[in-house]
Design a protein that fits this description.
The protein is α+β, with helices and mostly antiparallel strands. The protein is 44% helix and 18% strand. It comes from Bactrocera oleae.
Length: 215
C-alpha cells in the first residue's frame, strides 16, 4: 500500500468515510429533530388556537342556547325590595329576547328608604342574560350614556342607584350570575304600532339629530 505520513491511504479513506457517515447521521438527526420541533410547535399552535376558539365561543351565543334568566316572580319581588326598597303594587313582564324586563308600579303608600324622589311613571327592572352579564364594562358605559343624555335634555330611561349607591349589581340566582339594574320607565307607544304622519317623521328625525348633536 502507498504510504503517506506513515498512514495507509486506504485507512485514511475508511476513516474519512466513517467521519462523513457520522456527519451525515448528525445531519439526519438535526433534520428529524427540526421536523419534530416543527410538529410540536404546530401541535401547540393548534392547541392554543383551540383554547382561544373555545374561549371566544364561551363569549358568543351558541345556536339553540337558552341564556334567558331563570327567575320567578318571588325573585323579582325580593330583588326590588332588597336593592331598591320598593314594595310592588303591580308588576308586568315586558316582551324581551334574551333578558327579563319587568314593568313595576310601586306601592306609593309605603315610604321608600332608598329612593328619595319617586318616579311617577314606575320603573323597569332589567335582569340581563348570563352571557351579557359578564360584560360589566359595557353595562357601565350604557349607564353613563343614559345619564349623560338625560342631563342634556334627551328623554330616555335613566338608571336608578341601588342600596349600595351603584347603578347595577351582579346577583346569583338559580345557579347563575345576572346583572340587575332599575331604570325609570318612559311611557309611550312603540313606533311601529302608531299611524305615520309627516309630523311624526319630522319629530323622530329631530329627536335622533339631537342625540347626534349632544354626543
Amino acid at each position: 500500500m502507498e504510504q503517506w505520513n506513515n498512514v495507509e491511504l486506504t485507512s485514511l479513506r475508511k476513516k474519512s468515510y466513517t467521519l462523513n457517515h457520522e456527519y451525515d447521521l448528525a445531519n439526519k438527526c438535526i433534520v428529524v429533530n427540526s421536523k419534530s420541533d416543527a410538529s410540536n410547535t404546530a401541535d401547540n399552535n393548534v392547541n392554543d388556537n383551540n383554547d382561544s376558539n373555545n374561549a371566544n365561543q364561551s363569549k358568543l351565543l351558541q345556536p339553540g342556547s337558552n341564556i334567558k334568566p331563570k327567575v320567578t316572580a318571588e325573585n323579582v319581588e325580593s330583588l326590588v325590595r332588597r336593592l331598591y326598597g320598593i314594595t310592588i303594587n303591580e308588576i308586568k313582564e315586558l316582551i324581551s329576547y334574551d333578558d327579563r324586563n319587568y314593568l313595576i308600579q310601586p306601592d306609593w303608600n309605603i315610604k321608600n328608604p332608598i329612593i328619595a324622589t319617586p318616579w311617577p311613571h314606575g320603573y323597569v327592572l332589567k335582569i340581563l342574560n348570563e352571557l351579557d352579564s359578564k360584560k360589566t364594562d359595557f353595562i357601565d358605559a350604557q349607564n353613563e350614556l343614559m345619564i349623560y343624555l338625560s342631563k342634556e335634555g334627551i328623554v330616555c330611561p335613566t338608571p336608578v342607584t341601588n342600596v349600595n349607591g351603584k347603578y347595577f349589581s351582579v346577583e346569583h340566582m338559580n345557579g347563575a350570575d345576572y346583572v340587575v339594574r332599575l331604570l325609570e320607565f318612559v311611557p309611550g307607544k312603540m313606533f311601529h304600532t302608531v299611524e305615520k304622519s309627516n309630523y311624526l317623521l319630522y319629530k323622530s328625525g329631530e329627536y335622533i339629530a339631537n342625540i347626534d348633536r349632544v354626543l
